[in-house]
């Protein structure tokens, strides 16, 4: 029957409008991620994979002896990491590029700790020192810079005497998932309901007129 096809078109239009309104509202409410941490600079220090980088000790006027990569750039460790585990990925790894290698890392003069590697999610090998994954800071622009020291009280320059990292401790936590329904009068739902009622009402009126005819 023709009036059934007309009603189906009307209902399909209503559904399309609902998805459009909800989708637009969801996109508008989506959070954005900012990389403007610390001094807000991107820096020139970018970690690149090399065959056998040499880690050596440099002298810093404020921090004393510090660990640097073969390019002279300062190296850091992240307090939230644990032995052989990096917890810096995604946006964090852009701000703090990991020191990566394609072979076995070698120790230069004054480096007395244990060097190793861990495999990151992208397959690259990140250098570790006494179990701590090593990073550059993108805000450092030249050898000798230590602008990442103490960042958010989580990032610190690597000392040759850095204590051995401990394994991560795991604790069991019980969480309860609850569903939150949209509040009446908030978000796009009142407008969505109005659109559906308006179009459905118009469709019923049209069907009744066709039947009467």
Describe the protein in words.
- The chain is an alpha+beta fold.
- It has a domain of 104 residues.
- It contains 3 helices and 9 strands, in the order αβββαββββββα.
- Strands 4, 6, 7 and 8 form a 4-stranded antiparallel β-sheet that branches. The chain has a 3-stranded mixed β-sheet with strand order 2-1-5, with no helix packed on it. Strands 3-9 form a two-stranded antiparallel ribbon.
- A hairpin with a 2-residue loop joins strand 7 and strand 8.
- Helix 1 runs antiparallel to helix 3.
- 20% of the residues are buried.
- About 23% of the residues have low confidence.
Give a quick set of tags describing it.
213 residues; alpha+beta; four-stranded antiparallel β-sheet; 3 helices
Summed up, what is this model?
With 213 residues, the chain is α+β, with helices and mostly antiparallel strands. It has helices spanning 2-29, 91-95, 189-212, and strands spanning 54-60, 64-68, 76-78, 100-101, 106-107, 115-119, 125-129, 132-133, 155-157. The strands form three sheets. Strands 4, 6, 7 and 8 form a four-stranded antiparallel β-sheet that branches.
The secondary-structure class comes to: alpha+beta
- Which band does the percent of strand residues land in? 15-25%
Count of individual helical segments: 3
- Helicity level, as a percent range? 25-40%
Strand segment count:
9
Q: How does the major sheet shape up?
A: 4 strands, antiparallel
Give the N-terminus to C-terminus distance in angstroms: 14 Å
Mind telling me the C-alpha Rg? 29 Å
Q: pLDDT average, as an integer?
A: 73
Label the overall shape. elongated
Order of helices and strands: HEEEHEEEEEEH
Low-confidence stretches: 21-53, 170-186
